[in-house]
Amino acid sequence: MSGSAPVHVDPDAIRATLRAAGLRARHALSQNFLADPDVLDAILAEADPPPGRRVLEIGPGLGLLTGGLLAAGAEVTAVELDHGLAAFLRERFEGDDALRLIEGDALDQDLVRLVEPPYDVVANLPYHITSPILHALLGTPPRPERLVLMVQREVAERIAAPPGRMSYLSVFVQYHARVRIALRVPAAAFEPEPAVESAVIVVEPYDADDRLDAETEDELWRLVQAAFRERRKMIHNVLSRQLPVDAGRVAAALAAANIDPDRRPQTLAVGEWLALREALAPIGPDGRGRRGAA
After folding, report:
1. How many of the other CB atoms lie within 10 Å of CB of 249?
2. What are the pLDDT digits (tens) for 85-113?
3. Neighbour tally for 72: CB within 10 Å
4. What distance lies between CA 193 and its chain's CA centroid?
5. Which residues face 80 on adjacent strands?
6. For the chain, is the Cβ count within 10 Å smaller at the N or the C terminus?
């Protein structure tokens, strides 16, 4: 059957569910279970899958979001690392043919090929896997059409940062997609309560024809990675140290891209990185480990 009903719970219900199933939140896996029904409803409203929509869920936990997605008529492929939680989910959703459960580490999966496109992604991501998961989902086709992700609040702000507070991660994600912070989530919304706040971000990838070809894109990331190794230094000094490009070429490229050579890497917008790559090309392997490199 399909169309399981969502379950609205509170912290006491979460604790009771874990005890009844012989489970506990595992600190080593950064497990914190969402226990606020309003936040759950807000995430489901952002995901808003139409009937029959294919959704990849990473880290379903106790299946609260899973149940809501199934109730909306979505076809869910869920990846769960924890053996005990996977067993709990199999029992809870037994007979629901709209759910496909994969037991294993999401980092070991070829995520973009687990679900036939078009598809969306919904996930509650631990901090330590947020960056590699985003790289896996955005860096290789077929990319999802929409991602609704719960992440640590500081990571959400880094991903959605404007020029002036950019990082390599924000440049990477914003090159691939539109990003917005949809909801800030207090620590009290989870059981057990984590030490940090969270946020829900919505990531909407651009069309494939908006991207550079693979070789040119690789050149772009060599440039951006090199610059952010010394993010507090002036960009004309950083690039001549970190890339096999002499200072004269760097100065000429910055002038052609209309970028002040005294700016810091975190102040450049995605469009400026694209212009700088074009002006500086070809860019060989970076100079990591050279004298003066950070």
Report:
1. 16
2. 999 999 999 999 999 999 999 999 999 99
3. 18
4. 22
5. 103
6. N
What's the pLDDT tens digit per position in 134-180?
999 999 999 999 999 999 999 999 999 999 999 999 999 999 999 99
For 148, which DSSP code?
E
User: Is residue 23 within 8 Å of residue 61, measured between CB atoms?
Assistant: no
Greatest extent of the chain over all pairs of C-alpha atoms, in Å = 68
Q: Residues near 151 by Cβ (< 8 Å), separated by ≥ 6?
A: 125, 127, 130, 159, 198, 199, 200, 201
Q: Quick check: helix, strand or coil at residue 17? A: helix
How many other C-beta atoms lie within 10 A of the C-beta of residue 44?
21
Residue 174 contacts by C-beta under 8 Å, 6 or more apart in sequence?
159, 160, 270
Please calculate the CA angle 95-101-103 and round it to the nearest 5 degrees: 135
Beta-ladder partners of 217: none
Evaluate whether 12 touches 36 at the Cβ level (below 8 Å): no
Long-range contacts of 235-241 (CB under 8 A, 24+ apart): 235/259, 235/261, 235/262, 235/263, 235/264, 235/265, 235/268, 236/261, 236/262, 238/265, 239/280, 241/287, 241/290, 241/292, 241/293
pTM over 0.85: yes
Gap between the Cα atoms of 226 and 266, Å rounded: 12
Q: And the tokens for 266?
A: 């975190």
Are the C-beta atoms of 200 and 149 separated by less than 8 Å?
yes
Q: Strand 146-152 vs strand 119-124: parallel, antiparallel, or unpaired?
A: parallel
- 247 touches 273 (CB < 8 A): no
Show the DSSP H helices in the chain as ranges: 11-20, 37-47, 64-71, 83-92, 127-138, 153-159, 168-176, 214-228, 235-242, 247-256, 270-280
